[in-house]
Write a structure and sequence with these properties.
The complex is a heterodimer of chains A (491) and B (106). By secondary structure, chain A is α+β, with helices and mostly antiparallel strands. In chain A, strands 3-2-1-4-5-6-7 form a 7-stranded antiparallel sheet, with helices on one face. The model of chain A has no long low-confidence stretch (mean pLDDT 90). Chain A is built from 18 helices and 7 strands. Chain B is mainly α and 106 residues long. Chain B has one domain. Chain B has helices at 2-19, 22-29, 35-59, 64-105. The chains are: A alpha+beta (491), B mainly alpha (106). Chains A and B meet through helix 13 of A and helix 1 and helix 4 of B.
Chain lengths: 491, 106
């Protein structure tokens, strides 16, 4: 059991640290996206204003499309995302970001924003399903490591509150145990629900057998979207959205509308689907209402899910952690950091335990170098991504992907650096680099935008100020780690 | 405000449970706790944790509350664990300075 814990943890540990850290950052995905698009007007808009102005935009530009989609900004963003699909003509698919208040295309820099870390967290920015399958293997290894770790930890209650600093291997073990045991409910929940979010990719066979390989039939039964009728071919004016929004708010008892789908706009068979925002229940189940787009008759609601669907939605909602407001989000974030620290201390512990016995061989050397790039190097790469967002020229072609390229290039560079420098020095230098990069980011933000802390704090602009402060805090943490390493090595 | 109270209850509850253990009791008082004190600390600690659970249920609802409670326990537990060593050091420092002052005045 101990060997199982050791090896499942080590072999996927480097990847798990990256998955854990970027996943933890994703709790603040909308805020990071806001920070990375400083051009957006930072005004609070009601869902109604954003919905109606987006609708006006689509009525002007989306004629002849077979479907319109409106994703409203919600309480944590200030841009509306609209998309449209065409059966005939070009382009077939179009996505535009609108300023929520004016309903006009927002003039923002080309960036993936917080979505970069969010998608990296489960697909590693790899094409197709490759990344998702690798992440699935890592998550399964994590689950194995957690359960075998609990079984092998003999003094789980006796050592519950124990941390003895300054005692080499003992301290690493204590830190690993504390971050693992105290956040155990979180670790179990996040790993298990993480696997469930992609369960139809990992275990598709039952589904394919039960539905005879017909995924659409499954989707329909799991009530994930409507099957709109074919176009009637007869033009008919699309009704006004405002009365439908009022109806939805009454039905959902104040929960806001989050997403609007309009199928066959301008046709006699038009359908309007309203979907509730996802931030007030544990369950990621979002209330849904379907209206006839011409007569405004309410055709369909699904307020009652079957229990398997309800379970799946609750698990998914727990994993995303979008409910419960800022305080609970902070707790999820802290638990996620504890998880990252657990993986990192576990990786270091593996090495320290073997080195203490006097072992010297290539494997230890390799693990030592990979640890540096996977832990300190990733922090450098994350900071570089934020820098790239502010420094890359705005007119650059494929700018958003270039930001990602900066992330991966700098990460690769830290691996090269770790391989070439003496180990202790490489740790220290990378942590100092990360500390400097993170701490200078609020300064860079002040130099390149008008939204620095002296402006955002008095204005109560918490998405901007919060990210600036978070970056500053990350810098301080990296600096503290670098100082600790410097003192311990006596240099 | 209620959130602060819930956090305080969780932290106090964990601290009491922690100092009911001989090892941690020695960190502050140099001796293991007496039987009576241990029972009091355990009872009080459990009570405080239960109270923080009730507070979480009333701040959020009874579906989100338990999730928040577990998160709160994690955060306060980690805070306590990583503060304990410096707490012990601060305690020793205070005790020494009190001793020094006594020996100076006598």
């Amino acid at each position: 059991m101990a060997a199982l814990h050791t090896w499942s943890g080590l072999l996927l540990g480097w990847l798990l640290f990256a998955i854990f850290l970027t996943g933890t950052m994703s709790y603040y995905r909308p805020e990071i996206s806001q920070w990375m698009r400083p051009e957006l007007h930072r005004t609070a808009n009601t869902a109604d204003i954003a919905a109606l102005s987006a609708m006006q935009y689509l009525r002007q530009t989306g004629l002849g499309a077979s479907r319109w989609l409106i994703d409203l900004p919600g309480t944590r963003g200030s841009a509306t995302h609209v998309a449209l699909w065409r059966d005939h003509g070009a382009p077939r698919f179009q996505r535009v970001m609108l300023d929520a208040a004016s309903g006009q295309p927002a003039r923002v820099r080309d960036t993936h924003g917080g979505d970069f870390f969010y998608y990296f967290h489960f697909d590693l920015q790899m094409p197709g399903a490759v990344g998702r399958i690798i992440v699935g293997v890592a998550a399964m290894a994590m689950l194995v490591a957690i359960i075998s770790g609990v079984i092998t930890h003999r003094r789980i209650f006796a050592d519950f509150f124990t941390f003895r600093p300054g005692k080499a291997q003992r301290s690493w073990l204590d830190a690993h145990n504390a971050t693992a045991v105290l956040a155990l409910p979180y670790h179990l929940m996040i790993t298990y629900t993480g696997l469930l979010t992609l369960m139809f990719l990992y275990l598709p066979w039952g589904l394919d057998r039960a539905y005879a390989n017909d995924r659409a039939a499954f989707q329909a039964e799991a009530s994930r979207g409507i099957a709109p009728p074919p176009p009637a071919g007869v033009p008919a004016p699309l009704i006004d959205l405002a009365p439908l929004l009022v109806q939805a708010e009454a039905r959902w008892q104040g929960a806001a509308v989050g997403r609007i789908n309009i199928y066959r706009p301008g046709d006699a068979n038009a359908r309007i689907e309203l979907i509730a925002a996802d931030d007030d229940h544990v369950s990621h189940y979002r209330g849904r209402m379907v209206f006839d787009g011409v007569s405004s008759a309410l055709l369909e609601t699904d307020d009652n899910l079957s229990w398997p669907a309800a379970t799946e939605r609750a698990m998914y909602g727990l994993h995303l952690g979008r409910f419960g407001g800022p305080a609970l989000r902070g707790l999820f974030f802290a638990s996620g950091l504890a998880g990252s620290a657990m993986v990192a201390t576990g990786l270091v512990l593996w090495l320290v335990a073997r080195r203490r016995k006097g072992a010297v061989h290539f494997g230890l050397h390799l693990v030592g170098r990979l640890n540096i790039a996977a832990i300190a190097g990733l922090l450098v790469a994350v900071a570089v991504f934020f820098w790239a967002n502010r420094l890359l020229p705005l007119q650059l072609a494929d700018r958003a992907d270039r930001e990602g390229l900066c992330f991966f290039m700098s990460w690769a560079f830290t691996l090269l650096h770790a391989a070439l420098r003496p180990e202790v020095k490489a740790w220290r230098e990378q942590f100092w680099t990360a500390a400097a990069l993170f701490m200078l980011l609020p300064v860079l933000n002040a130099l390149t935008t008008g939204h620095h802390l002296l402006v955002s704090l008095p204005a109560g602009d918490w998405s901007m100020a919060g990210i600036d402060l978070g970056l500053l805090g990350s810098g301080l943490l990296c600096g503290a780690l670098a100082l600790y390493l410097q003192r311990r090595s006596g240099a | 405000m209620m959130m602060l109270l819930a956090t305080f209850c969780a932290l106090a509850g964990f601290a009491a449970l922690c100092f009911a253990m001989p090892r941690h009791h020695r960190q502050l008082w140099e001796t293991a706790p007496g039987r009576r004190r241990q029972i009091m600390l355990r009872f009080g600690g459990s009570l405080m944790l239960a109270l923080s659970f009730l507070l979480c249920g009333s701040i959020w609802d009874w579906k989100i509350g338990p999730v928040a409670w577990l998160g709160l326990l994690t955060a306060t537990g980690l805070l306590l664990v990583f503060m304990l060593p410096s707490l012990g050091r601060a305690e020793i420092f205070l005790r020494r300075s009190v001793k020094n002052r006594r020996s100076h005045s006598s």
